[in-house]
Every structure is written in structure tokens, then in C-alpha cells.
Design goal:
Length: about 325
């Protein structure tokens, strides 16, 4: 029996032999005391790569986004955010529950962007009736869609004009950067903060970087402590992150090519990055599982390519889809 083809998410990757070697060899220390040289190196490297003054290592993207929201907003402040955004929809309402931050959700357009007229109309006047609109939170890629830089230029100009801070959930920003052929720095320019996962397409077992100014990262450090996210000898994980940034960025193009091949093979719309969407007939998911192809069940399947699915695996997946009667 050959290996399973797991298309549930790009988070299912396991650390490669090279990554494990780097993890095993990592110099470590107590990161609560700032003593872990590998964590420090990762934070310096990420700050440079993303073009920010400082960065902070988090166990997860959910916590990094939440710490960012809490560092931008006080109790009773408001964040403008897309209805489909991870920070709004898939993080258990953490900003509201733990940060006392009111989300003002705005419907995402089919391309994943927010209508900037609607964003501006949602900004509340300075009046005791209203929450204080403080932050605009955007996402790239969003559900596999790549948002072009020109859109962010407009969104950031609006935020600046209206005195809003800006956060980018760039969990998969490297997919966007590789797809657009731009350095990640260029896609992040102008945002006050960016969160970017090492644990998705980059293939690390855990870890997310939060980027921002020195002041912002100092606030986020306090939030991270409060949220229980400071780890001790985290250099073992940071080493995986450094390895991922060094070895697994350019190869995201293979995931995009595999996603395109998969979409073509099964008659799904052409993907923009590493996610293919396919309307499933009843019984399809079970049939795929019998063929060794695992997908998350749902009426609309999200099929995600990643570094643990190679071209042969994609052909097996296509055959499994096409043998469904
Ligand atoms: C995965 C993801 C997160 C959260 O990351 P976790 O490490 O799973 O908590 C945040 N935003 C987006 C867009 C994501 O895809």
C-alpha cells in the first residue's frame, strides 16, 4: 500500500530529515530570559526578511494574531475585518473574548478583498455611542486567493488618512510572494504589523512570526506572556523555522504547479496558489478515502497541496477523483 495523499491542509507536513537534523543540532537557552540564541537568530532573520524593526516568535498563528490585535487595540476599540478572515471567523472570537475588541465584519468580495468604500463607511465617528474604530485587519493569501500589492496600497492609504492602524494576517504570505514573484518585504510594506506562519506551506512543525516596530513588539511580548505563549528552550522549534525560511520558500512554486495540475485533472477552477476548490457529490469523500486520498469533508472541498504531496501523489488523487461514479 503506497502512502496516503493527504490534501486536508498544508499544515499536515512532517519535518523533513534535514529539518530534524537542524532541530537536533539547535543551540538553545531559556527564551523567557531572552537566552535562546536560535530564537533570537530567527527573530532577527525574520525582521530583516519582512522589512520590520523587530519580530517575535509565537507557537501559533492564532496567538500571534490575537497578540497583535491586543497590541493595537484597547478594551472597547474596534477592528474592521473581513467576514471570511481567519482572525474573525476561525479564531474562536479571541479578539472579542480575550481582548474586549469589537469586530466590525465586512463582506469579502469574490476576489477576497474588502470594498474600501464599505470599509470607510464602517469607521465610527468619535462619539460615546460607538466603539473606537482603531484597526484594519487584512489577509493574504485569503482562502487561497492572492491579493495584489496595488490593492494594499489603496487600503493602507485609506487607513493612514483615517488614522487606523493596520495588521496583515500573512499566514500564507510566502505563497503570495512566490506567486507574484515579489519579495515578501514588498507585500508587507506599509503595514504596522504582519503575522506569518512557519507551520503551513513552509513545513515547520510549529511557529509563527509577528513583525512590527520595536514598540509594537514590546507590547506584543506582554500580550504573549499573558496568553501563555512564551516557551523555554524554543530554539528546537526556531531551528525548524530557520530551516524552513532557507529551504522551503522557493519550492512553494511546486505546490502551486501541483494545485494547477490537480484542478485541471478534476475539472476544478484554476487555483491562484495552493488551494483547489471542488463541489463534492455525496459519497465522493468516502470513495477518495478508499483510494488513499484524504480530504476534509464538506459540500465544497478544499484541496491543499504542500511539500508532502509530490507530482505522483497528485496523479493518484486525480485518478481517485475520476474513478468516482
Ligand atoms: C492557519 C492560519 C492562522 C492560524 O494559525 P495557527 O497556527 O493554526 O493558529 C491564521 N490565519 C490564517 C489565514 C491561517 O491560515
Amino acid at each position: 500500500m503506497s502512502a496516503l495523499v493527504d490534501l486536508r491542509s498544508d499544515t499536515v507536513t512532517r519535518p523533513s530529515a534535514g529539518m530534524r537534523k537542524a532541530m537536533a543540532a539547535a543551540e538553545v537557552g531559556d527564551d523567557v530570559f531572552g537566552d535562546d540564541p536560535t530564537v533570537n537568530r530567527l527573530q532577527e532573520c525574520a525582521a530583516q526578511l519582512f522589512g520590520f524593526e523587530a519580530s517575535l516568535f509565537f507557537p501559533t498563528g492564532t496567538q500571534s494574531n490575537l497578540a497583535a490585535l491586543m497590541s493595537h487595540c484597547q478594551r472597547g476599540d474596534e477592528v474592521l475585518v473581513g467576514m471570511e478572515a481567519h482572525t474573525y471567523r476561525y479564531e474562536a472570537g479571541g479578539g472579542a473574548v480575550l481582548g474586549s475588541i469589537q469586530p466590525q465584519a465586512i463582506v469579502n468580495r469574490p476576489d477576497g478583498t474588502l470594498d474600501l468604500g464599505e470599509v470607510e463607511a464602517a469607521i465610527k465617528p468619535d462619539d460615546p455611542h460607538f466603539a473606537r474604530t482603531r484597526l484594519l485587519a487584512l489577509e493574504n493569501t485569503i482562502t487561497g486567493r492572492v491579493i495584489p500589492r496595488a490593492y494594499f496600497d489603496q487600503a493602507l492609504a485609506l487607513a493612514q488618512r483615517r488614522g487606523l492602524s493596520t495588521h496583515l494576517d500573512g499566514a500564507r504570505i510566502f505563497n503570495a510572494a512566490v506567486k507574484l514573484g515579489l519579495p515578501v518585504k514588498d507585500l508587507c510594506r506599509g503595514f504596522d504589523s504582519v503575522s506569518s506562519c512557519l507551520s503551513k506551506g513552509l513545513g515547520a512543525p510549529a511557529g509563527t512570526m509577528l513583525l512590527g516596530s520595536k514598540d509594537f513588539i514590546a507590547r506584543a511580548k506582554r500580550a504573549r506572556k499573558m496568553l501563555g505563549g512564551v516557551m523555554r528552550q524554543a530554539g528546537v522549534l526556531a531551528a525548524a523555522g530557520l530551516y524552513a525560511l532557507e529551504h522551503n520558500v522557493e519550492r512553494l512554486a511546486e505546490d502551486h504547479a501541483n494545485a494547477e495540475r490537480l484542478a485541471k485533472g478534476i475539472g476544478a477552477p484554476t487555483p491562484q496558489s495552493n488551494m483547489v476548490f471542488f463541489d463534492a457529490a455525496p459519497g465522493l469523500v468516502e470513495h477518495l478515502a478508499q483510494q488513499g486520498v484524504i480530504v476534509l469533508p464538506g459540500a465544497r472541498l478544499r484541496l491543499v497541496t504542500h511539500l508532502d504531496v509530490d507530482a505522483a501523489g497528485i496523479e493518484r488523487a486525480i485518478a481517485a477523483f475520476n474513478s468516482f461514479k
